[in-house]
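Quick one:
INPUT:
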C-alpha cells in the first residue's frame, strides 16, 4: 500500500511537470488562433451565465486540443461533455475513461459553448461555483476539479497555467467593466426571428407540485403559497373581475400581480397570485431553462418572481427574443 501511494505521488508530479513543459513548448499559433476565434463566444456566455470567460476558454483549449481533436472537428464538442441520461441529441462514441463512451454531438461549436454553460449552471454538483467571485479563476479551476469535471489529478493546475500564460483574464475584465458588447450577425438575427415563430411562445398552464396549502377562499378553493407568495388556481373561463370579487380585492391588483390584460379570460389551473411576487426566487432556484411554449411571464409565475426583476437580472425587456434552451437567472 505504501508503494502504491508513493507511485501515485510520483505519477502526479511527473504529469504536472510533463504538462507544464509541453505547454511551454506549445504556446502555439493554433492556441492563439483558437482564442481569437472563440473569445467573443466565451464572453457572451459569461454575460448570460456568469461563468468566467477565462475558464471557458481554458477548458475549450484543453478539452478540444486547440480545436483540433477528433471530437471537436467531427462532433463540434469542445468540452468533452458526455451524453448522460438526459441527453436526447446526436451521439458519438469514443474511448475515454472507459471503452466506447458516449459523447454529445452539436451542430456548431457555438452550440457546444452554450451547452457547456447550461451543463455547469444546471448541474447540482457545480452550484457552489456560482457563489465564488466571477473573477476568481483559481477558485473556479480548483472547484471544477473538486466537482469531478475531469479525472486528471493536475487538471486545476493546467487550467490556471493556460489562463495565466495566455492572459485569459483580460476577457473576464472586459465583461465585468462593460467593455464587451456582443453583436449578432445578420444571419443570426434571421434565425432568431424564425426561432421566435417556431417556439410559439404563449402562456401554458401548469401545476406547482410543492406549494403549501395555507387557507381557503370563500368558494372553497385552496390558497397555496409559492416563494412565500399566496396564489390560487383559476377555473376555465373566469375573468379577472370575477376573481377579484370573490377574493375581496381590486381587479387592478390581480392584473398587476400577474401581468395580465384587463380583458383576460383565464385558463383552467392557471396560477393567479393574490399578493405581490418577490424580487428573486427561493435559494434552490438560480436559473430556469426556457422550454417550448414558455414566456418570461410564464417563468415569473412559476417561481413567484416579479417580471421586472427578471428583466433586470437578465438584462432583458418585453421585446427580448427567447430561445428554447436559454437560461434565465432567477436570483
Amino acid at each position: 500500500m505504501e508503494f502504491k501511494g508513493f507511485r501515485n505521488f510520483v505519477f502526479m508530479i511527473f504529469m504536472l511537470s510533463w504538462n507544464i513543459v509541453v505547454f511551454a513548448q506549445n504556446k502555439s499559433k493554433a492556441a492563439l488562433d483558437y482564442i481569437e476565434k472563440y473569445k467573443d463566444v466565451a464572453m457572451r456566455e459569461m454575460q448570460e451565465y456568469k461563468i468566467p470567460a477565462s475558464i471557458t476558454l481554458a477548458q475549450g483549449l484543453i478539452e478540444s486540443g486547440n480545436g483540433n481533436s477528433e471530437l471537436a472537428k467531427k462532433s463540434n464538442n469542445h468540452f468533452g461533455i458526455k451524453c448522460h441520461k438526459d441527453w436526447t441529441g446526436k451521439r458519438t462514441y469514443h474511448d475515454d475513461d472507459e471503452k466506447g463512451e458516449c459523447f454529445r454531438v452539436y451542430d456548431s461549436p457555438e452550440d457546444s459553448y452554450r451547452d457547456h454553460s447550461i451543463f455547469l449552471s444546471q448541474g447540482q454538483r457545480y452550484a457552489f461555483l456560482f457563489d465564488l467571485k466571477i473573477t476568481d479563476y483559481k477558485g473556479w479551476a480548483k472547484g471544477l476539479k473538486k466537482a469531478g469535471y475531469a479525472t486528471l489529478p493536475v487538471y486545476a493546475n493546467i487550467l490556471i497555467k493556460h489562463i495565466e500564460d495566455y492572459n485569459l483574464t483580460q476577457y473576464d475584465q472586459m465583461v465585468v467593466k462593460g467593455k464587451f458588447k456582443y453583436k449578432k450577425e445578420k444571419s443570426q438575427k434571421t434565425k432568431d426571428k424564425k426561432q421566435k415563430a417556431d417556439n410559439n411562445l404563449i402562456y401554458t398552464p401548469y401545476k406547482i407540485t410543492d406549494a403549501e396549502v395555507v387557507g381557503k377562499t370563500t368558494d372553497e378553493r385552496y390558497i397555496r403559497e409559492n416563494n412565500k407568495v399566496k396564489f390560487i388556481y383559476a377555473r376555465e373561463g373566469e375573468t379577472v373581475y370575477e376573481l377579484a370579487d370573490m377574493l375581496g380585492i381590486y381587479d387592478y391588483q390581480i392584473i398587476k400581480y400577474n401581468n395580465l390584460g384587463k380583458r383576460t379570460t383565464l385558463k383552467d389551473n392557471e396560477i393567479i397570485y393574490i399578493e405581490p411576487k418577490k424580487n428573486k426566487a427561493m435559494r434552490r432556484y438560480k436559473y430556469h431553462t426556457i422550454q417550448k411554449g414558455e414566456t418570461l411571464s410564464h417563468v415569473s409565475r412559476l417561481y413567484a418572481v416579479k417580471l421586472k426583476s427578471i428583466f433586470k437580472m437578465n438584462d432583458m425587456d418585453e421585446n427580448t427574443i427567447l430561445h428554447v434552451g436559454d437560461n434565465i437567472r432567477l436570483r
